[in-house]
Amino acid sequence: MRRRRDGTAAGDAFAACLVVSLLEGRDEEEALFRACAAGALAVSRLGAQPSLPTAAEIDAILRP
Known about the structure:
The protein is mainly α.
């Protein structure tokens, strides 16, 4: 069985996370990692606003 993917709001999640991360003072590499994680999480969920991840969800996906 294949998982459904929905790209709605993935770019928005990426851009918003990138800007917020930079405004928080994170370095560019960390900001990009966080933005990619936010976009990936958004694609894994259906819809626009419901697909936007929280900071805690981004932290969780980036934990080793």
